[in-house]
Amino acid sequence: MLSVMLDGCIKVPVKMKINIINSLVLILLFSSHVFSQKVSLIPLPNKISSAPKKFTISSATKILANGDMAIQAAELFNSWLKQTNGYALPIVSTVLRKDRYIAFSMINDTSEKYMLKVKRRFVLLEGGAAGLIRGTSTLLQLAFQSLETKNKIPCQTIYDQPKFGYRGVHLDVSRHFLSKEFVKRYIDLLALYKMNTFHWHLTDDQGWRIQIIKYPRLTDVGSWRSGSMIGPYRNQQFDSIPYGGFYTQNDIREVVYYASQRQITIIPEIEMPGHSLAALAAYPEYSCLGTVKEVGRAWGGFDDVFCVNDSTFSFLEDVLSEVIELFPSKYIHIGGDECPKLRWSQCPKCLNTRFEKNLNNEDELQSYFIQRIEKFLNSKDRQIIGWDEILEGGLAPNATVMSWRGIDGGKTAARSGHNAIMSPGTHCYFDHYQGERATEPLAFGGYTTLEKVYSYRPIPDSLTKDEQKFILGAQANLWTEYMYDEKQVEYMLFPRLCALSEVLWTDTVWHNEKSFYKRVLQNQHLLDSFHVNYSNTWHLPSLKIGGGGKVPSLLLSLSSKVPQSIQTAWEDDNGVSEFTAYRNPKTVSSTGKLLVRSNYNQHETIVKYPFEFSKVTGAKINLITPGNKSYANLPITLVDGITGAFPWTGKHWIGWIGKSPEVQIDFSSIQKVDSIVVVYLHDPVSWIHAPASISYGETELKFESQKATTTEAINRISIPVNMEMKNIHLRFNSIGLNPEGTAGAGQNGWLFVSEILVY
Ligand code: ACM
Ligand code: ZN
């Protein structure tokens, strides 16, 4: 699970005040749309026209609904209203002329389209079964425009329908088990933001979570592990507290029904052929060696995977037969990601399958595995979805690809006429950090900020119009290695879900970052009434670092997405200065710490940014080899005085994969260089390796450092130089492929550099 990147662009000026002038500008720009009135809806509807006056909800308001689907939507509205208002409204089949009422009216339409008309005396919500539910979330949000105007809905008419047909959120319940009650709450929150698919990751190495009647050991044995990892993966520390849990088939039926009432499809994922250690601990006979004993305790992958032979397929077909009885969804997710092929290459049974089926290599064996499962599921009238590794060795004929290692998998699928769902680590992995490392709880490495998610466009420009039709939509993934409980899951989901919801529902022409942040703030009141533990760290000021002109020096500017006062102080060997209001960018030219104090909504936070200066801090630097898209930060990142943290966010590192990158730093005059220090990352489990060595010179690369070996995560190598130089040219020599015995062996390794210091 490696990916992600930094965004770093800071777009909102510091002294942003949502003032009258801003509002007027918006009105001029968007007078035909929702900005002409105060709307706090997320996602924004695609067409609104407003009128004067308001409809007021009170406990005397009636709900008029006839027919099962209309009543179902009305009941959902009531269940939400109980959260926000503490009361529900009577549902009736007729109303009198004097009544104030909300009518839920079912029409014959299978889409998610709805129409919502708000008049002074009544509200009319009209749609098919799904449209009514989508409109219900709009209605609730309208009733909750703000604390001041709660229950007063401005008169208006909305015609709305989604941009994308697939709007998904995933949840991994294997690494950390989440109760049936929480899963229902999660689904409810997805419905509130008009998502329509819940991808339930039910099995993995660290726990099997679904009861299968024919194979009771799957839950008796496979749902328990003897301990769990504590802290980041590389510490390799474990507790010895037995950990487990699973859903009975009745639990699953209950959740599926609950989701169906919210017009949310649940796609179950049963992982194969890799990430299957929990199943194999229960039934070791389906592994190659037959010796698996323990459900996984460590995060990450394991070499023991399903053995490719007929008895495994019989077992999996039995399992899937029970799964499809429980889940009515068209799609069944069969995983397919990160399957190590080591066991297969040495297993007589797997070699025999290869021989019999005339398969040239292990990739083809994996493809055979997936195609055989696909054939089985197709025969039961279901379709498969798999992670993008299912493209390797040949894609199963009817498969849908879930593109997670970037967007290339999705593009390849679309180009070959297969459906694709976009879920790239860069924008859709909500297990990654959403803010500066220092302000966030431990998470999976990576940096996926609210603005990054909001900027996401699921359809790659490089696809033709015909190919674009195969991109069904996108999905957020929540892998729970570092989400220890429900509160943490909510923290990682919100407010990023708000951004993805608008990306997937609302036409791009209506996207507007400033309006979005404002609406997120208003939505927080709604989330408060649902007691959602959303993250507030997106409120914190962003720091942008530029060269200060003279070298060494830096220009530091701060900006905020919300209106708030910001103060700064500077700390160095002489002590700490007074905090003063931040007005203009600051120039700094020696080692010290910038302290940024902000106060939004009575949350005072101080963030410290330590700067380490050298002769090249803030110098002009040329990235001869640009960083990988996922970690392509500005070149100044390497000389901005800040060393990135571990686990890494994308923010203070530049990463390259399969390359020996070169950079050049310009001094503009001759300087004496005693030594060059390079700060790099080493985290083999994430495929990140120390450079083998570093070549350096003035313009030509004439010299080479010693080998940069290490066991630490963040490292500094100091290269003695002792020369007069006008430029420094460096090449970080990659180790090439991930070595045997490390994660991703045989595939291209990553190289990460955070800082170059020259003395
Ligand atoms: C994945 O993140 N391994 C699909
Ligand atoms: Zn085998």
Description of the molecule:
With 759 residues, this protein is α/β, with parallel strands linked by helices. The chain folds into 4 domains: 37-160, Chitobiase, domain 2, CATH 3.30.379; 166-509, Alpha-Beta Barrel (TIM Barrel), CATH 3.20.20.80; 540-611, Immunoglobulins (Immunoglobulin-like, Sandwich), CATH 2.60.40.10; 620-758, Sandwich (Jelly Rolls). Helix content is 24%, strand content 28%. An 8-stranded parallel beta barrel has the order 8-9-16-17-18-19-20-23, surrounded by 5 helices. The model is unreliable at 1-32 (pLDDT under 50). Acetamide (ACM) is lined by residues 1, 337-338, 387, 404.
In short:
The chain is α/β, with parallel strands linked by helices and 759 residues long. Bound molecules: acetamide and zinc ion.
Characteristic key phrases:
single chain, 759 residues, alpha/beta, Chitobiase, domain 2, TIM Barrel, Immunoglobulin-like, 4 domains, eight-stranded parallel beta barrel, seven-stranded mixed β-sheet, 18 helices, disordered N terminus, binds acetamide, binds zinc ion
Fold topology:
Blueprint: H1 20-29, E1 47-56, E2 62-65, H2 68-85, E3 91-92, E4 101-106, E5 114-118, E6 122-127, H3 129-143, E7 152-160, E8 166-172, H4 180-192, E9 197-201, E10 203-204, E11 207-208, H5 217-220, E12 224-225, E13 229-230, E14 237-238, E15 243-244, H6 249-261, E16 265-272, H7 277-282, H8 310-326, E17 331-335, H9 342-346, H10 348-357, H11 362-379, E18 383-387, E19 400-403, H12 408-415, E20 420-422, H13 425-428, E21 432-433, E22 444-447, H14 450-454, H15 465-468, E23 471-476, H16 486-493, H17 496-505, H18 513-529, E24 542-547, E25 554-559, E26 565-572, E27 575-576, E28 580-581, E29 586-588, E30 592-600, E31 603-611, E32 620-623, E33 654-657, E34 662-681, E35 693-697, E36 703-704, E37 714-733, E38 750-758
Parallel strand pairs: 2-3, 2-4, 4-6, 8-9, 8-23, 9-16, 16-17, 17-18, 18-19, 19-20, 20-23, 21-22
Antiparallel strand pairs: 1-7, 5-6, 5-7, 10-11, 12-15, 13-14, 24-25, 25-29, 26-27, 26-28, 26-30, 30-31, 32-34, 33-38, 34-37, 34-38, 35-36, 35-37
This protein binds acetamide and zinc ion (ZN).
Zinc ion binds at residues 288, 307-308, 343-344, 347, 349-350.
